[in-house]
Specification:
The structure holds 2 protein chains of 2 kinds. Chain A is mainly β. In chain A, 0% of the residues lie in helices and 56% in strands. In chain A, strand 7 and strand 8 form a beta hairpin. The chains are: A mainly beta, B mainly beta. Chains A and B meet through strand 5, strand 9 and strand 10 of A and strand 4, strand 5, strand 9 and strand 10 of B.
């Protein structure tokens, strides 16, 4: 079992819809969770961090964490074509950051 | 406000050649990482350094060596490059339990 798992996609949503991205992790002692966005040919950039159970909202983005079920999700409301990218889930366990393989999101105008 | 700086940005090597990728961060972070990214494989951890003077293997360490020269610098060396090492390499740094910041990446081709 991979430490951090994501559906590779592509996930296609129409412009204006809600995009839902999911991630599961295996290390129960993980404490910090992040979502990165990566445009083709570019470096990953941080868009959300979440450390405790529940929801965290920032603009059109909402991160959700459920430590008991070991999953973290990202909701993107009012999706825009500029949101088309690969979204990487990252988890910090003991000493290191582990990334999922990423979910490719396509927002159709 | 440089953040994480990687050099070079692009490199072409012949099979068997050696090279060192350089990485430096100016955020006073303790942890530094080297990842490789291949299509469909996501970011795979090659080596990491949790603090100055320590290094540990990640998921795909074979064929690589690293040096944590000081708190700022973490280099990745390919002693004898192979076509399977053609990839995009990212250096990153973080403080304990917080987000990682990435360099701009090195696109390496081994022919």
């Amino acid at each position: 079992q991979k430490e951090v798992e994501q559906n590779s996609g592509p996930l296609s949503v129409p412009e204006g819809a809600i995009a839902s991205l999911n991630c599961t992790y295996s290390d129960r002692v993980s404490q910090s969770f992040f979502w990165y966005r990566q445009y083709s040919g570019k470096s990953p950039e941080l868009i959300m961090s979440i450390y405790s159970n529940g929801d965290k909202e920032d603009g059109r983005f909402t991160a959700q964490l459920n430590k008991a079920s070991q999953y973290v999700s990202l909701l993107i409301r009012d999706s825009q074509p500029s949101d088309s990218a690969t979204y990487l889930c990252a988890v910090i366990g003991y000493q290191k950051v582990t990334f999922g393989t990423g979910t490719k999101l396509q927002v159709i105008p | 406000n440089a953040g994480v700086t990687q050099t070079p940005k692009f490199q072409v090597l012949k099979t068997g050649q050696s090279m060192t990728l350089q990485c430096a961060q100016d955020m006073n972070h303790n942890s530094m990482y080297w990842y490789r990214q291949d299509p469909g494989m996501g970011l795979r951890l090659i080596y990491y350094s949790a603090s100055e003077g320590t290094t540990d293997k990640g998921e795909v360490p074979n064929g690589y060596n690293v040096s944590r020269l000081n708190k700022r610098e973490f280099s990745l060396r390919l002693e004898s490059a192979a076509p399977s090492q053609t990839s995009v390499y990212f250096c990153a740094s973080s403080e304990s339990k917080t987000e990682a910041f990435f360099g701009q990446g090195t696109r390496l081709t081994v022919v």
